[in-house]
Amino acid sequence: MLELTNEAVEKYLQQLFGPELRLTGVGELGSLDQQEMKDFGYGKPLELFWEKNGESKSAVLSMMKGDRYGHQEYWDRARILMMQHDTGQRMERHVKPLGLGYADQAGKLFAVQNPQEFFVLSEKSQGRDYFRDLYRIREGELRDEDVALAAEFGRWLARIHSEKHTDPDLYVRRVRNLVGDCECIFGIDDGYPYPYEFFPPERFVALEQKLVEWRWKLRQHTDRLCAVHGDFHPWNILVQEGSASPDFRVLDRSRGEWGEAADDVACMTLNYMLFGLYKKPYLSGSFATLFSTLWESYLEASGDTEICKVIAPFYVFRAMVVASPEWYPNHPIEVRKGLFRFVENILQDDIFDWQNVNRYMENA
Questions:
Q1: C-alpha span between 77 and 82 (Å, rounded)
Q2: Which InterPro entries match (predicted)?
Q3: Residue 123 maps to a domain
Q4: Quick check: is 1 in a domain?
Q5: Nearest-CA neighbor of 167 among 253, 71, 75?
Q6: Residue 20 domain boundaries
Q7: With a cut of 70, which residues of the chain have pLDDT below it?
Q8: How many domains does the chain have?
Q9: Conformational region of residue 33, where left means phi above 0, alpha means psi within -120 to 50, and beta covers everything else
Q10: Is 194 a member of any domain?
C-alpha cells in the first residue's frame, strides 16, 4: 500500500472543498485484527478529520491493495473504486461518495471530479497499415519483403517474450480470463447469434467444456509468464516505409503487461490462416509461407518448443473472434466453417503440430 503524508491528504481535500480547509487528524479506521471473522481485506481505510470556516467534518479514505483475485494491477483497482464512487451515489441509504482520485508515484493525491469517460493520448506514428499488405497478398502479390517482415515479427516477439516474470497467480488469472472473460472466449461466444445455424449450441457446449479441461492443463505452466503485447494482429501494426530492413510499430497493447507468449504468436498466425481461407479451405500458397516463416523465426530465436503444448486455447480465442459474424460480418460462410473446423480439431491434440497445420482443417 502507498504511504500517504498528512500534507498530501490535506492538499487533496483542498482540491475538493477549498483552500480554507485545514486537516486536523488522520487515523486508521479499524484493522484486520479487529474484524475478527474476516481474515481477508482489500485495504485499510483511513479516517480523515478537518475544519473549514469553523466547522469540523470527517470522512473515510479507502484504497485497495493488490491481490490474486483480479486486482494485481493499479488499473484493476481503479476500476473497482470508480464503480463504487459512481454507483454509491444512486443507492438509497448508501454512504455518500465525496471524491474520486488517484495517487501518483510521489505520493501526491489528485482529485478526479465528475468523470464520465476516460481517454488516452498517444503519439502518432507514420507508417502503412499492415492489414493492407495482406489484402494485396491475397490478390496474388507476395514480395520478398513480406516474408522478411513475417520473420522479423517472429524475432521481435521472441525478444519481447524473453522478459520473464514470476507470479503464478497472475499466469492463472490470464488463463482464466482467456477462457471466461467478457472480451475473451466465453464473451465472444455469447456475441454469436443464438442459435447460430453454422455453429449450433451443442457445438458451443462441447467447445467450452474442452476449454475448461485446457484451463487446468495450463496450470502446470505458470513459469511461462512473460512480457506480451496482447493483441498482436495486422490492424495493430504500422509498417515503416523506406527502411533498409523490416521495421514496424505496434499499437494498442492490451490485457496487461504479462501473459502467455502463445497468445501473441497465435494472434498473428491465425490472421494468416484467415486470409488464406479466402482462397482455399485450408492453408496454402502465400499465407502458408507467412505462417511457416513466423513460426520458424520465432522458434529459432526463442528456443521455446514448449509453446506448442499451450497454444491451442489461444488459437481458439483468436479464431472465434475472426469467425464471429458480429465482428467480421462480411466473411463468406466457407471461411467461417474452416475456422470452426480448426478450433474443434486443435483442442484434441496435446501438442500443436504447426508444420502440418492443415490436418486441423479437416472435418471433425
A1: 9
A2: Aminoglycoside_PTrfase, Kinase-like_dom_sf
A3: no
A4: no
A5: 71
A6: 6-112
A7: 1-2, 30-43, 364
A8: 2
A9: alpha
A10: yes
Cell of 236: 495493430
Query: At 65, which CATH number?
Result: 3.10.450
Q: 71 and 138 share a domain?
A: no
Q: Per residue in 280-328, pLDDT tens?
A: 999 999 999 999 999 999 999 999 999 999 999 999 999 999 999 999 9
Predicted pLDDT at 92 = 84
In DSSP terms, which residues pair with 103 in a beta bridge? 109
Between CA 292 and CA 298, with CA 297 as vertex, the angle to 5 degrees is 100
Give pTM, 2 decimals. 0.90
Is 314 within 8 Å of 266 (Cβ atoms)? yes
Residues 100 and 136 in one domain: no
| Contacts of residue 288, Cβ cutoff 8 Å, sequence gap at least 6 | 272, 276
What whole-number distance in Å separates Cα of residue 344 and Cα of residue 164? Answer: 31
Q: Are residues 145 and 178 in the same domain?
A: yes
Residues 132 and 215 in one domain: yes
Residue type, 185: I
Report which of 173, 172, 206 is spatially closest to residue 189, judged by C-alpha positions. 206
